[in-house]
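Protocol step 4 of 5: obtain the predicted structure for the target chain.
Materials: sequence only (see below). No template structures provided, no constraints applied. The aim of this step is simply to have a reference model before the mutagenesis design in step 5. Sequence pasted as it appears in the construct record:
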Amino acid sequence: MRVRTLAVVSAGLREPSSTRLLADRLATATVTELDQEVVVEHVELREHGHDLVNNLLTGFPSGDLRAAVDTVTKADGLIVVTPIFSASCSGLFKMFFDVLDAGSLAGKPVLVAATGGTARHSLALEHALRPLFAYLRSIVVPTAVFAASEDWSSTELSGRIDRAAAELAGLIAGRGHDAPVDPFEDPAPFEQPLAKG
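Step 4 output (structure tokens):
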């Protein structure tokens, strides 16, 4: 049985962060559900803020950002967690997914989650995050997880975490390993376009 990789992207702005805390709980629950060897790789977007802006301006990721992008695109499954600001995901979170190559998350199982001050922000998962990952052609698990400030000690949050983790684990376990295709890996020979009909 081969080792699975799980990338965990969190867009919290502070340290410690409730966004990272939720990401860690989701990752732990998913690893438990998978019941096999799993390598969990964390991507803290706060550490890549300047590089993300530079990438948007230049079109090229720096070394550290390139490594973070590779971690996400090569993983077998993905957990993404953002704080909710102004009824949507954070700008840092959106910037990261804006710089990914088209198709790099196609078919990848994704669990979406968010944190916010009140439960009024919970619908942002459905009108902001789920459409984003549908556009990226990812497979988003049915259960999204939102944690408001008052949710942290509730058994209901624990139940949602376990349900979402089981759904993600099921998708990962049932999926073969398809490495991302590098469009420059096997170019057509230079002579081919010039050859006569």
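Step 4 remarks: The chain has one domain: 4-194. Strands lie at 4-10, 38-44, 77-85, 88-89, 109-116, 139-140, 145-148.
Proceed to step 5.
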